[in-house]
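Hey, sorry to bother you again with one of my protein questions. There's a protein on my desk that I can't quite get my head around. No rush at all, and the record is pasted right below.
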Amino acid sequence: MELSYYNISYTEEGFSLVYNTFTKSFVKLPSEEWEYIQTNVNGMELSTENILVKEGIVVESALEQLVQFKYYYHSKVFSGIYPLLYIAPTMSCNLRCFYCFEGSNKRGGVMPESTIGNMITMLKKSSNKHINIVWFGGEPLLGYSSILQICKKMQESLISFKSSMITNGTLLTKDKINTINELNLDYVQISIDGIAKDHDKRRMFNDGRPSFDIIMDNVDYYLRHSNIRFIFQVTVDKSNLTGYDDVVEYSKERFSSFIENHRVRIGKNYVQNRTGFDSDNKCFGDTELIEDKIADSEKNNKTIGFPSLAIPCMYRRKGFFAIDSNGDIFKCIKHLGDKTKKIGSVNEHSISLPALSKCTFENDPFEDAECKTCNVLPICGGGCPIDCIKFKKGEIASRCSYYKHSIPHLLPYYYSKIKSK
């Protein structure tokens, strides 16, 4: 017998909390006993061994458990029911947000009619019966006419689709809302950074004008004149720590009836310094992020769930693509507009099989000596493939997800919640 690769432990006050990220098992042992087991796995009491084997904390072969997760993970690479397309009808944007990852890839112009036609031709040749679309950008509503044209041509071509949109909300105006049902939308998500006092310092128009009040008036009209679900996604760092709570309170006052009938949902994004842009130390570190999540859960009387088993991101998954306004095809939204990262083009009616294969299988965590025995592999899946590439090139300091250093700090929290039930 041997210990699983995927055990995480936390010891205090004479006891050890042990969590297995693959089996989701969670046990409490006297710390002396756990310390002994780690060096004498075959010398423990039979009753303890039976429990730890049942929970997957002790296994006959740690390598066999790795293979089980490898099977699960790789099966998800090719198991998508429907394709998912992020379509950017323009790479232009009317706001300037300091943390935006698109940077120099933003540019003017909308998707031309010829490119729309070529994209529809490629979709018609596909054997897929249904397509999911996310309207993205840039700011997608700057290319609203192209979105309407794409939807019209898909309907004429009998291509079944459902869509959603990620927008900054400044251009979600009455004329667009009055025609928005043509997009067959499941939901609209608006990115904000708190209420006016914070948002307008961080997400202003290109000419410096504030945007918060304009967005809220648009949202108000949208909620009253459509039945489509709506999400506020609030971005926070250390300079707008109360941003999420402020939006919750603001929404309860202004949009209370829509919250009550579940039309409005409010989410939270943390800005982390993955690319080295944070010279002012405003971003959340791994431990700080977990501490804030715990504080939120206590304040809102909610429980942070155990992390789910990781599934591949769009970069690796079959049928997941991003298409920019030039018709270039990418495997990640972070690459939109960067011609050096494209894997195909709708205008050339082609996707490069070598490039596609490279995205799927290069930097495989199951072939990486550090990743495959890392105790958070089942919940991080090896991390972001693009971060792995950048890390190996020396472009970023770490490729690891925040789980790597934060999960041990969550174990006392999990234990307290289990004990209280």
In short: The chain has a mean pLDDT of 91.
